[in-house]
Q: What sequence folds into this?
């Protein structure tokens, strides 16, 4: 009899474990298995006042429901004030190891003499993410990432997640391993992108991690009409599971044109077009027409790290 009971309990335990492992992301977030879940996410908060203002406006209008902050950038204190005034806002950290603009530069937050492999000779982060992948020492990467997260908490930002500026931390399995280790230590969900050649980083994930099934981002320039069609098609063809649409919001004004000077892509006009489409009534209606369920990184955080 004892053997029978033990065998039955073991079978129930195995079935329960298998059921937990085979639940979809939608089910883990409390939605039907075939639900189309979407995070509308604004990157690069803190880069400029224009970027902040457009993103805050989009958050207030419900045009985006999440965003991530670049802690080393000059306008981050404005973001901290917004975060304290809007404690339920879904704001994460856009962990930053490069500084891409031609005339608008920044470095990191860890003591520079402790992270020398992260810097160019001019005292700023390198422009290219390839440089980070080739040159950065992992202990120094970890020190800088922790400095950025700690600085966020120190100025009143309570991040709901982390991701990586210009995908720098997805460039090699070693960088991704450092990134996920740091994120888990703070109990923060993390964005993962698996485009080639970084497919090997999938092996770094654990069964408890929740990462999006798909990440969508506009990568080509085009007319406002092409912009509109791109996002409407993305919503119409959304698959079941968790998708993140990454946008970069800003106003096409003198400040943002100066920040992004010399860049053909990702400039002020690019960010204005993202803003225009996401805040349009047509885009909002498309979400309704296609039965899209908006979720946030805060929802993911609660599912990954439930409060006892």
A:
């Amino acid at each position: 009899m004892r053997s029978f009971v033990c065998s039955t309990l073991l079978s129930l335990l195995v079935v329960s474990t298998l059921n937990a492992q085979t639940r979809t992301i939608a089910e883990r977030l409390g939605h039907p298995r075939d639900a189309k879940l979407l995070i509308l996410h604004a990157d690069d908060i803190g880069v400029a006042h224009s970027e902040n203002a457009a993103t805050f406006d989009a958050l207030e209008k419900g045009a985006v429901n999440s965003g991530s902050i670049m802690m080393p950038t000059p306008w981050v204190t404005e973001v901290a004030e917004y975060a304290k005034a809007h404690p339920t806002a879904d704001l994460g950290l856009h962990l930053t190891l490069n500084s891409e603009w031609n005339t608008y530069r920044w470095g990191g937050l860890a003591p520079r003499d402790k992270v020398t492999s992260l810097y160019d000779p001019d005292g700023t982060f390198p422009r290219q993410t390839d440089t980070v992948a080739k040159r950065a020492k992992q202990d120094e990467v970890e020190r800088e990432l922790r400095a950025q997260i700690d600085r966020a908490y120190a100025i009143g930002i309570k991040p709901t997640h982390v991701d990586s500026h210009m995908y720098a931390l997805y460039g090699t399995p070693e960088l991704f391993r450092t990134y996920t280790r740091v994120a888990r230590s703070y109990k923060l969900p993390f964005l993962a992108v698996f485009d080639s050649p970084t497919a090997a980083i999938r092996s770094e994930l654990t069964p408890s991690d929740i990462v999006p099934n798909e990440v969508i981002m506009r990568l080509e320039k085009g007319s406002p009409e092409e912009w509109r069609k791109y996002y409407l098609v993305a919503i119409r063809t959304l698959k079941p599971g968790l998708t993140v649409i990454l946008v970069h919001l800003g106003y096409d004004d003198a400040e943002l044109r100066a920040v992004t000077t010399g860049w053909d892509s990702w400039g002020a006009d690019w960010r204005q077009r993202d803003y225009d489409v996401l805040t349009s009534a047509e885009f909002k209606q498309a979400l309704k027409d296609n039965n899209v369920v908006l979720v946030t990184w805060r929802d993911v955080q609660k599912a990954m790290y439930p409060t006892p």
Notes: The longest strand covers residues 36-45. Strands lie at 36-45, 66-69, 91-95, 162-164, 214-217, 241-247, 292-294.
